[in-house]
Amino acid sequence: MRRGSIVQLIVIGVLAGAVASAVALIPDWLPNSASREAGRIDFVFWFVTGICIFVFSIVAAVTVYSVWKFRVKPDDDSDGPPIHGHTGLEILWTAVPTMLVTAIAIVSAIVLAKDDAAGANPLRINVYAQQFFWSFDYPGYGNKTSAVLRLPVDRSVVLTMHAKDVLHSFWVPEFRQKQDLVPGLHPTLHITPNKVGTYSLICTELCGLGHALMRSRVVVMQPAAFEQWAKKKSK
Amino acid sequence: MGKEEVEMSSIAEHHEGQATHHGPPPPPRGWRRLLYPGLLRAAWMVPLFFGLGSAIVVLCRWWGGWHPIWFGEIIVLIGALTAAPIGFLAGIGAFDYWVRYCIGAPTEPEDHSRHGAYSWRDYFRVNTDHKVIGMQYLATTIFFFLAGGLLAMLVRAELAKPGMQFFDNQTYNGLFSVHASLMIFLFVIPAFAGLANFVVPLMLGAPDMAFPRLNALSFWLLPIAGIMMLSSFLVPGGAFAAGWTGYAPLSVHQPMGTIFFNMGVQWAGASSIMTALNFLVTIITMRAPGMTFWRMPLLVWANFTTSLLVVIATPFIAGSQFFVMFDRVMHTHFFDIGAGGYPLGYQHIFWFYSHPAVYIMMLPGFGIASEVISALSRKPIFGYRLMALSLMAILVLGFSVWAHHMFVSGMAPWLRVPMMITTLMIAVPTGIKVFSWLATIWEGKLNFATPMLWAVGFVSMFVIGGLSGIYLGAVPIDIHTSDTYFVVAHIHYVLFGGSLFTIFAGIYYWFPKMTGRQYNEKLGKLHFWLTFIGFNLTFFPMHLIGTQGMPRRVSDYDPQFGNWNLFISVASFFLGASTIVFLYNMVISMRRGAPAEANPWRALTLEWQVSSPPPIFNFDEIPQVVGNPYEYGVPGARHAVLNGDRAPTEEEIRSH
Hints:
heterodimer; A: alpha+beta; Helix Hairpins; Immunoglobulin-like; 5-stranded mixed sheet; 4 helices; 23% strand; elongated; B: mainly alpha; 4 domains; two-stranded antiparallel ribbon; 2 strands; globular; disordered N terminus
């Protein structure tokens, strides 16, 4: 390969990388983050995005360069060079992707383990889903029930899932965490809200007729306000 | 070259002359026509079998003392969805040979009189010619592609604005469920089977598939499955509406339309399995002399691995749908927790098929891309053996990743990390394929005819789909994006940008071979560019609204996503309209296209060494395979020797 074509190839790669980075950075890809877990998940998201932009730039550079340089005129019937392979290259593009995905797997596994580990003295809440409502009950507060999920800020929460009829799924985009509710199983989900506010809770597992409208609210409050609310309406 | 062409055309004439001697016997006249295999006989055998099925139900219920004796749902299941299709198959004559054999009647000698198609009517008959069956597959699958596409247009119409527009929730859920089912079971999987049906025996140097009658039967199961899925819109309660995934327990308690899905999958699945067995036996036993496994074109390798996937995996989805149906009609308790059932079991069984199904829908496309890219770059495929081995690696790894669809499902938490590792590892063989295609076009002599546009378009779109797959493979990101529009974007990049682009590449690439006419190149290119642009405008923004928080499978959504959804809907109508260019091109080119040369792409594989369309029995003499299939640019290299040519000697090759 001539030096000129290497420069051209690199220029195209940098341009493709710039376009991909602009696509990654200009729109708001992720909603506001309102939990400690969200921060870690976002880290994995941007870690993977970095690797993907790198891979995309290489592929785009080679593709665009080839399409631009190697197309022939309709009357050119000649054949290309009979290259059958290159063991070094083949080892390279087996080894490098293996290392990249291994890095992604390690980062993901660490974040997953951290997100799953509830802190000391977590607040335990039972989540109930049925077609097409959510309800919540607080065993630590005399089984107080509520149709809106109220949480104190900066405290670990462990949600235990109960489905009464079919599958549902608990998702608050600002918390990033998601868990299906399965009849007969009681999986848990761990969240540590870290920003006061009101967020929407969305059912993300198709559950029938009213699935699209099966929503509720999550209110993250100051601990004192939460205690006051939780104790006041206790049965 | 010129001399060869003359020879080819004389072979073709020779065959046509032969064919007139061998044509099918003329149909009988008068009332005997009702007994002659065909649609007319099917027209009375379908109601007959429906009646028989219904009578069995009524008799059993009367005998067992069950009320009501006339029970609509069971009548539909046994009469309409089981017995009537068998009546249809018997009517058109798919079983004639075997029935005659079983009752001791004289069977028709296999003189191949049912080979070849002499008029359009022959495409509506049971035909054992793999080339006719290939065309039947393609026409049928394109029909269901259009039906599935129109359903997608209705979905996008509903989603153009937040709030409810045209449909109620149940109808909307039915629209996307049937859309996905048709596209998967009636378009992508069988369209690849159709292309392979036409091409694989030719590429192997074989006169037909190993089991021509089984081949015909497996085709005729398809329209049954498709009509079943579509007609579910007409039954009380509407179409099946639990998604193509049909998760239990929701699917158990849906209106009657659900059993149309349960049974439709059985018919389509049976078709798939029979075809796959046929391909396996054909590829293993019917290769021309000299065609070793390491001389097979990559399309054959791709269909070999795909067929293994189909044979091993498909029984699992058949089982999962039977379990749902049995819970419903036989009161078993597979998914009823009240009686000790296990709803999550459905997902494990379902995805044990449906993840390998992703590769069933992609590996044949890899094969097509390899053929097109090598021939139209005028270069040997880069790293042929590693390309074949990476197909095998995907086949094996593909069975170890199913639970990555279930990271948030509530399954045992420890299972997530191992499934993530295997999922991410499968990116390695897939990456090898992508890099090898790029290395193949590198320094090639690229001819950007329509098939090449689709093939290179496929590689670039599939890269995006593959990279979004890495996001979904990483568990923490998947937890956020699972069941959102990010997933919708991902599957359309791999199944539309991947599978559909390669199907189009294959249709344009082999169009001259199949029809004997050349398609219109300008319209082909126009079709590519309209689709390419429309596709990206439609599906790329879905990544964004997905990560921002829009769930999938909803008829209504948060108004903050209104602008993007309107944009996507408009783009999708543009994308849908681009299909008109394709249809127009196919129809006019089939009727009035310029006659095609035997080998317009100057490709080396065997299907291009016979006339276009190929002679009825493919090869005059069995070809002798003497080399690799992609030796472009290698002086004196030959893939095969046909029709009395002799293989070049070592000295001749060296002296070139």
